[in-house]
Amino acid sequence: MAKKRRDRQSAGGAVVAPSVHEEPLREKLEEESLTKDTPRAPVGSARMSLLILLSIFTCSASVMYLVYSYFPELNDDEMEKIKIPKDMDDAKALGVVLSKYKDTYYTQVLMAYFTTPVVYRYLSERAQKWSQQVDKHRKHLINYIIFLRITPFLPNWFINITSPVINVPLGVFFLGTFLGVAPPSFVAINAGTTLYKLTTAGEAVSWNSLGVLAVLAVLSILPVCFQKKLQEKLE
């Protein structure tokens, strides 16, 4: 009877209600179509990323092994001191060994210093980009040099090598270096004079000296910020 009734309703043009078993099937088909349409992340990219990460780690480990294998010959007592210092005594012992290494291999270190023109040749394209950036901020160049000298963002040797390549004027470089290196040098000298009297590493550099360096760094870059804001208001 129920089957005949459904046949009559369909013949009369009435809408046939879906059965209980048809609704889950339709939802399942819709989910499958959605999963097919959504793009999936390629498996190859994840494998490539993992391969690059492993290769970087392998290269770094190989370089460290080469440095360790070609390390100069030291006796057993000195080799025990070549480690990451955990306290002030370890730091002092490491400094003594490195100072001896500098005196013994002075010629090699000096030759490495004079081979820096090779860097100029292989960094010519990048140096041109840096030179363009310097030309844009040439008015405030001395402020940037003082800021970079005070703050530990870039090492001083990097600033010394790249400054003549990117056409930094000698007068600006000298004045910025003189004003920027003086505060950190004062802190370093103050720490060095009391180095052998220390019992803990925290006594070498106090929070006051770090605060002075931070204030001087902010003061060196403030004129640039204020002048830019003033130009924006005038324009």
Q: In terms of structural class, how would the helical and strand content be classed?
A: mainly alpha
Biggest sheet descriptor: none
Q: How many strands in all?
A: 0
Number of helical segments?
12
Shape: extended
What is the rounded Rg? Answer: 34 Å
Order of helices and strands: HHHHHHHHHHHH
Estimated share of beta-strand residues: under 5%
Folded structure, characterized:
Belongs to the TMEM41 family. InterPro entries: TM41A/B, VTT_dom. This is Transmembrane protein 41B. The protein has 235 residues and is mainly alpha-helical. Among the domains are: 46 residues; 111 residues, no CATH class. 75% of the residues lie in helices and 0% in strands. It contains 12 helices and no strands. α9 runs parallel beside α11. The longest helix has 28 residues. The protein is extended and about 80 Å long. The protein starts with a helix and ends with a helix.
Task: Tag the structure with descriptive keywords.
235 residues; mainly alpha; 12 helices
Write a brief structural summary.
By secondary structure, the chain is an all-alpha fold.
Itemize the secondary structure elements and their pairings.
Layout lengths: L1 H10 L10 H16 L5 H27 L6 H6 L6 H17 L1 H9 L2 H6 L1 H13 L4 H10 L5 H10 L4 H24 L13 H28 L1
Helix pairs in contact: 9-11, 9-12
